[in-house]
Amino acid sequence: MNDRVVHGIPDHYVLREGDILAIDCGAKLDGFHGDTCLTVGVGQVTEQAKDLLVACQLAMFLGIDYCRVGYRLGDMSTAVQRFAEERGYSVVREYIGHGVGRDLHEDPQVVFADQRPGTGFRMEVGMTITVEPILNIGSQKCVVEPDGWTVRTADGQLSAQFEHAVAITKDGADILSYPDPEFELEDGL
Question: Max Cα separation, the chain?
C-alpha cells in the first residue's frame, strides 16, 4: 500500500481516500500454482498515482509481449526497464518474477532490470513464468521493516505492481491469470 513494495502484515491501518493498494493473490488447483497481482486506487487518487498505475500495468503487458519462443530474458528486461525509465519510474531489482508450476516459486528467475538484450534464458514452449515488474516513483531502493517481512520504498515514494502468470506457447503468450469469463459477475458487480 502506497510506499509498500511487497508483503506487509495486516495491522490497524484503515484505508483512506487516495491510497493505492497492491493485491497479490495465489491459488493452487490440481497440484499447480497460479499467481497474479494488481494495484488499485482507493476512491480518488492523485494524477501521479494514476500515472504510476497505468505505466506499471503497461510495463507488465510489454513484458508479456516478449514471452514468445526464441526471445530471451534480456530482451524482455531491457524493454521493460527502458519503458519505465523513459517515463521517470525506477524498477525494483530485489523482488522479481519467477517460474510457476508445481511450486509457487520455481526457476527461472525473471528480472526486469539491468540485463542485456540477447542474454538470459530463452523462452521455450511449455515454460510458465510470472511477469511482474514493480515500479517506484522515486528510487528503486527498498528497505525491509523491523517485522522482517514488510518491504517499503527507501524514500517513501509510491510503488505499484502488476502480475500475470504466463505460459509460453508456439503462438506466443497465454495469460493464465485472466479471469474466466464464465465466472465474471454481470453488470460489473
Answer: 48
